Amino acid sequence: MTDDLRDLYQEVILDHGRNPRNFRRPAGCNRRAEGDNPLCGDRLTVYLKLDDAGAVEDVAFEGRGCAISMASASMMTEMIRGRGEAEARALFDAFHKLVTGGDDGTGDVEDLDKLVALSGVRAFPMRVKCATLAWHTMTAAMNGLETATTE
Ligand code: ZN
User: Fold this and answer.
1) Cα 67 to averaged position of ligand 1 atoms, centre (Å)
2) pTM of the full structure
3) Ligand 1 centre from 13 Cα, in Å?
4) 53 C-alpha to ligand 1 centroid (Å)
5) Contact, 133 vs 99, CB < 8 A?
6) Is pLDDT at 109 greater than 70 in this prediction?
7) What fold is seen in the domain 3-144?
8) Is the pLDDT confidence value at 35 over 90?
9) Ligand 1 centre and the CA of 51: distance in Å?
């Protein structure tokens, strides 16, 4: 990765961290879960509105935390809207591999789009929890659980 590209990725994280997308409590949500990352102090609530087929009709979040956790949650809401439940879970799997270093570089990174910006956290295990908190919380909500924790 060139330095220019690295700067760009950081800009994406800063932008989403400062101005999180879908930071709201949507009307008519039918699933919600609260996520907690005590090591960093990130806390957020993910709201989902799933249609009858289980597809994500709406997704939003509220909460507070570090730039990485907020940016990851913001990007997540943009990326899973309109996806089926299995697709959203598969995206988390791919993202999880990316940030934990399990991705060998031949996976479907293209699908991850701007989430690739978060791949730098793989060098910082504590930050991996920040980056994946919203995703753990989203899947907890899909599973009908009300809480998720990174611990
Ligand atoms: Zn954090």
Assistant:
1) 7
2) 0.91
3) 13
4) 33
5) no
6) no
7) Sufe protein. Chain: A (3.90.1010)
8) yes
9) 31
Residue type (1 letter), 63: G
What the block records as the tokens of 2 is 């060139």
Q: How far is the CA of 127 from the centre of ligand 1 (A)?
A: 6
Q: Which residues of 28-67 are buried (b: 16+ CB within 10 A; e: fewer)?
A: ebebbbbbbbeebebbbbbbbbbeeeebbbbbbbbbebbb
Q: How far is the CA of 64 from the centre of ligand 1 (A)?
A: 9
Per-residue pLDDT of 54-81, as tens digits, reads: 999 999 999 999 999 999 999 999 999 9
Q: 70 CA distance to ligand 1 centroid (A)?
A: 8
Ligand 1 centroid, distance to 39 Cα (angstroms): 8
Asked if the model's pLDDT at residue 108 lies above 70, the reply is no
- Kindly tell me if the per-residue pLDDT of 82 is higher than 90: yes
- The residue type at 41: G
